[in-house]
Design brief:
Distance between the termini: 19 Å
Number of helices: 3
Number of strands: 0
Keywords: Oxidoreductase
Number of domains: 1
InterPro entries: 6-PGluconate_DH-like_C_sf, 6PGD_dom2, KPA_reductase
Protein name: Ketopantoate reductase C-terminal domain-containing protein
């Protein structure tokens, strides 16, 4: 996931984090930290994708 982020690619959040949140929700188990991590990761993903597109899809050096 770090390499995807560094290269401005979309992260595989659904398979990694959203499944955990879905299972916790089904069992009514609060997982605020995991949800916060998901939101922060999405924020950084969106920022990296915008930056990548602004620079023609090339990685910054």
């Amino acid at each position: 996931m770090l390499q995807d982020y560094q290269q401005g690619r979309a992260l595989e959040l659904a398979a990694i984090v959203e499944g955990v949140i879905e299972l916790a929700d089904r069992k009514r188990i609060p997982v605020p930290t995991i949800k916060s991590i998901l939101h922060l990761t999405r924020y950084f993903e969106d920022s990296a994708l915008r930056q990548s597109h602004a620079h023609g899809g090339k990685e910054n050096s």
